[in-house]
Amino acid sequence: MTATDPSQEFHTPAGFELAPDENCLSAMLAGAFAHPYTVLFTRPANYEWINVTARDFATEVKEVAKGLIAMGVEPGDRVALLSTTRYEWSLLDFAIWAAGAASVPIYPSSSLAQIQWIIEDSGAVVAITETRENTSLIEHLLLQEDGTPQLAGSPSRMRRILEIDASAIDTLKFEGRTVPDADVEKRIAAIRHEDLASIVYTSGTTGKPKGCHLTHYNWIFQARAILTNPIGAIAKPGTRMLTYLPMAHVLARAVSLALTISGATQSHWSDTATLTVALDRVRPHLMLGVPRVYEKVRTAAYNKAADRGGIPAALFTSAEKTAIEYSQALDTEDGPSRTLKTRRALFDRLVYAKIRDALGGHVEYCITGGSTMSSDLSHFYRGLGVPVYEGYGLTETAAACAVDFADQKIGTVGQPLNGYGAKVTADGEILVCGGGVFQGYWNNDEATAEVLEDGWFNTGDLGEIDDTGHITITGRKKDLIVTAGGKNVSPGPMEEILRQHPLISQALIVGDGKPFIGVLVTLDDEEFRRWKDDRNIPENRKLGDLVTEPSLRSEIQDAVNMANKSVSHAEAIKKFWILDRDLSEEENELTPTLKVKRNVVFQRFAEDINALYDGR
Predict the structure, then answer these.
(1) Which segments of 338-491 does DSSP mark as H helices, in order?
(2) For site-directed labelling of 374, which of 135, 188, 217, 457 has its Cα 20 to 30 A away?
(3) Same domain, residue pair 33 and 67
(4) Which intervals hold domain AMP-dependent synthetase/ligase (predicted)?
């Protein structure tokens, strides 16, 4: 098979059959009936963590669903859910389904304009928020007593707002106390595969977020595809997972749904700043993250060694090199040499065991998604005994449509997931089909027609498929840079290499229509402070005062030189520009899954980009 032949396709058999109208809710309830004492969740209560059994969870889901019914939520209605990752998120998600309604997840970090757009576009009749701050952002969208929106001209249909921190769950249970159990059972039984389950809005790296129409079939297909993949073998009663990524994102939600169905135990956590504390408490067997999380774990381990002096830092560097070499050797016919095995065993006691302990000490598998992970970082983790399996998917595919688990080839995102297929067009774009592919964009037929054709979804990603069906992602079609000399450059791979340098937080390749390739670089705040301390530079010296410092520029140039080794001379980075601050989600420069909003950054830092090309 050639990677650019559109007539070639690679499909992975489903390996499972869905019962008529089976869905994630019915699967969870069936599991609760069969194994009522399985612990599905741990949650905080009265300053401690308590277990939630499958039977307790199923009962609570129905109680909350009765509250939604009591307040007038009808089958097919949309209910907005604006909250960080917590137990109540999963509870409400299932309860909304049990009431026959569809959930509309909203990131708490969304801007006021984005929140308003999602509520209006989805036609949500009820919103459930987490905090008073969340509530205050959407109160103006409520309907007045006469049924007209408070905000003139708004198409909002929202009748009520409930707040988790203001006893939303207790309120729903109280209001639903007189609703017969039979009413909930009737609505659950009426759910069909083709029914709307969720409108999940894209994170909006460009333009307004688009709502992806995902049915109950899409979600149960995705969950079963995960569970019947070899990586699903770990999803079983007794397996622990820390669920901390935003539940509004399909990756975290899909894995959470699969684990709930399988009977594994989840603990929710939303404060990534204290993630190590949560990992130590939960001691997870399975960890789900985005590449940036794994990068930060590696950097934190190095920093801890460097804080103890030059010898521990050198020891870590040698251990990292050994882990990468060992993992790379696993892919060779002869495997690791005896000498390499001996070195690895030594570093396992001195270094690797401590990193595993930082992840809770029990992690067997890690999954990453959201963006491409560098091969060296993947080899590092596999070499130290914690393999990270890279998955690939989009909101439009209900999360994963490929995962690199069986017959792992680091650098690829694996073969299509069970029941999915993939092919590459003549211009290098990846197309995906399968039961998880969405029905289209909500209220946007034009956008739907642009990406769906004969069951195939145009992902917008560029890549290749090898003879075994392993997919390699090389970039985004819309991010492709064409220099003034006509050279096509995909920025993703070089940006990933640059981000491996401890000092560099973000890197954005520029040069569309320009005479050469340049790059904008931001520095990691903690690493920059450490860099200054090592050189006795006063703390009050700001980055803007040091961007021309030769030693700093030399560090960044080393990273640029490493990235340039991966491309031709015409594609190489000729100049770099250090921005005076890091990018942030608060400034609308990063999505909640830490993807860079390139158009926002390019507009905001247009003068800095121009500076690369005007001789300054």
Answers:
(1) 338-347, 353-358, 375-383, 445-451
(2) 457
(3) yes
(4) 45-442
Per-residue pLDDT tens digits for 400-453: 999 998 889 999 999 999 999 999 998 889 999 999 999 999 999 999 999 999
- In a domain, residue 229? The reply is no
pLDDT of residue 204: 54
Query: Which ranges of 206-309 does DSSP label H, i.e. alpha helix?
Result: 216-228, 250-262, 275-282, 291-306
Distances (CA, A) of 519 to 259, 463, 481, 492, 589: 41, 22, 12, 12, 16
* Higher pLDDT pick, 380 / 530: 380
Task: State both tokens at 154.
Answer: 């708004």
Task: Report the CATH number at residue 582.
Answer: 3.30.300.30
Burial class (CB in 10 A: 0-12, 13-18, 19+), 329: middle
* Average pLDDT score over residue span 98-110: 95
Does residue 361 belong to any structural domain of this protein? yes
- Could you tell me if 595 and 460 lie in one domain? no
Domain boundaries, position 442: 291-477
Using alpha carbons, select from 73, 75, 52, 51 the residue that is nearest to residue 64.
Answer: 73
**Strand pairing of 388-394 and 286-289?**
unpaired
As a whole number, the mean pLDDT across the chain is: 91
CATH of the domain at 37: 3.40.50.12780
266 within 8 A of 440, measured Cβ to Cβ:
no
| Angle, CA of 509, 208 and 212, to the nearest 5° | 105
Render pLDDT for 218-254 as a digit per residue (tens, 0 to 9). Answer: 999 999 999 999 888 889 999 999 999 999 999 999 9
My answer on whether 323 and 466 are in the same domain is yes
φ/ψ of residue 168, rounded to 5: -60, -45
State the total domains in the chain. Answer: 3
Q: Tens digits of per-residue pLDDT, 26-68?
A: 999 999 999 999 999 999 998 899 999 999 999 999 999 999 9
Q: Are 337 and 445 contained in the same domain?
A: yes
C-alpha dist (Å) from residue 330 to 152, 363, 382, 410: 64, 20, 10, 11
* Same-domain pairing of 445 and 563: no
